[in-house]
Design goal:
Blueprint (H helix, E strand, L loop, with lengths): L13 H8 L12 E6 L5 E9 L2 E10 L2 H14 L4 H4 L4 H8 L7 H23 L11
Antiparallel strand pairs: 1-2, 2-3
Helix pairs in contact: 1-2, 2-4, 2-5, 4-5
């Protein structure tokens, strides 16, 4: 993982500080129901994995090769999404992530776009795998 360029300080909201340091959702899920990966122009990469049960996202994890702002955004996506229905999840926007974090630096808005974009790719992956459920048994090595 790249060196984190920002550290939690008093200048950041409690939500931001919690999301930048939270580690319980960091990592890979084996055989996820949805997977998405995006790399931004800044060079940061985020991968998102989730499990679905009863049409609700039960667990979402992520991995980041990038800055602490992208980590905070990945955690915020996890926090904002878990327990919501798949159809409701499509309503998530980068603005929701920024509003939740409260103090994401304006010049790092792209980190919220990156995290939400990877999540949308994971939702798309989930939708495609539901249509072709037999393919799930044959990983594509994404």
């Amino acid at each position: 993982m790249k060196e984190h360029t920002c550290q939690p300080t008093a200048s950041h909201s409690e939500h931001f500080q919690k999301m930048v340091t939270r580690a319980d959702r960091y990592g890979i899920l084996e055989q996820p129901d949805g997977y998405g990966k995006r790399t931004g122009d800044c060079g940061d990469t985020i991968e998102i994995y989730f499990y679905v049960l009863g049409n609700q996202i039960q667990m979402l994890t992520f991995q980041v090769d990038g800055c602490a702002n992208t980590v905070a955004c990945g955690n915020a996506v996890s926090y904002l999404i878990e327990g919501r229905t798949i159809s409701d999840c499509w309503q998530l926007s980068p603005d929701n992530v920024v509003e939740y974090l409260e103090t994401l630096p304006a010049d790092h808005y792209h980190c919220a776009e990156l995290a939400v974009g990877a999540f949308y790719k994971a939702l798309t992956n989930f939708s495609k795998s539901r249509k072709d459920s037999w393919k799930k048994a044959y990983p594509t090595g994404q």
